[in-house]
Amino acid sequence: MNPIIVYCGTTPNIGTTLVSFTSAWLAAERSGWNIAYLCLNLKSSKLHRYMKRDNAEQTLDHLTPALKARTLSAEGLRSFGCRMPELPKLWFLFGNREREQAELYTPDDIQLLLELTSSHFDLTFVEVNAYWDNAATVCALQQAQQRYMVTTPNLTHFQEDFGCWYGKLSSWLQLAGDPLQLIVTQWHPKGAAYPLGKIEKETGLTIAGSIPWLADVDERLNAGELIRMTSGNRTLRKAVEPIAMQILRSSGYEPEATAQASWIRRLLLSS
User: Residues near 85 by Cβ (< 8 Å), separated by ≥ 6?
Assistant: First the structure.
């Protein structure tokens, strides 16, 4: 299986979808790899809303019958999902729209979905958000090669919420590979009550990056402007790019080699 990258949040609605999707977008943009983005947030998926696709049918719940019957193939999954003309190398699947069915997904369902996706795409990004009591969160965390926990400088988020769910899960998840890393959103150095070092010490996790506080983020996401933000917001892109590049390099991407290969191809075409 090719690498799987998982993003989860300590708390709902703190920017996990924004950060994870932007990471996938930048990874596809920088590498030219075939990148997948799975929304496995079974209880409060907002991806369709953030893209203004309220009537989208390319959602996890529409895929459930084939998943349960074990008739889903990698090709079937690939053709079922979505791509944007702005970046066709990025494929994505909208999340579950039937919240009451969240507990019906079994570990075997999620395992199959992850296996099919990672066998077809060079890199798979998965967002599970802040709810841990479901198969998607547990299985994705166990199968991932890299894991990111998203939180904010709010004490109740990085202390209470983090301790309540990850503190209890970590003792029996027995996660292999790279340890969990932290991403702090809504970061405002001058207005933060707790410095990043304090958050690291409190959680015991290394901070991979911080995302500045964006004044209009909620309004723009609710207006369906996720793609516009991801592709055009310089502040957001600058903050997320180091995380995306870290993921690419650890997955075998070599920017220098890729640039050299592109230069050679252009030279040969012009001769």
Answer: none
The amino acid at 245: M
CA–CA distance, 246 with 201 (Å, rounded to integer): 22
Contact indicator for 167, 10 with CB cutoff of 8 Å? no
Confidence of residue 264 (pLDDT cuts 50, 70, 90): very low
Note the pLDDT tens digit of each residue in 147-201: 999 999 999 999 988 888 777 777 777 776 667 899 999 998 777 778 899 999 9
- Inter-residue contact 127 to 18 (CB < 8 Å): no
Domains of the chain: 4-270 (3.40.50.300)
Look-up: residue for tokens 């055009």?
Answer: 232
Dihedral angle, C-alpha 58, 60, 63, 69, nearest 10 °: 170
* Cα–Cα distances in angstroms (integers) from residue 268 to residues 39, 214, 258, 264, 271, in the given order: 41, 45, 15, 6, 5
**Per-residue pLDDT tens over the stretch 103-124:** 899 999 999 999 999 999 999 9
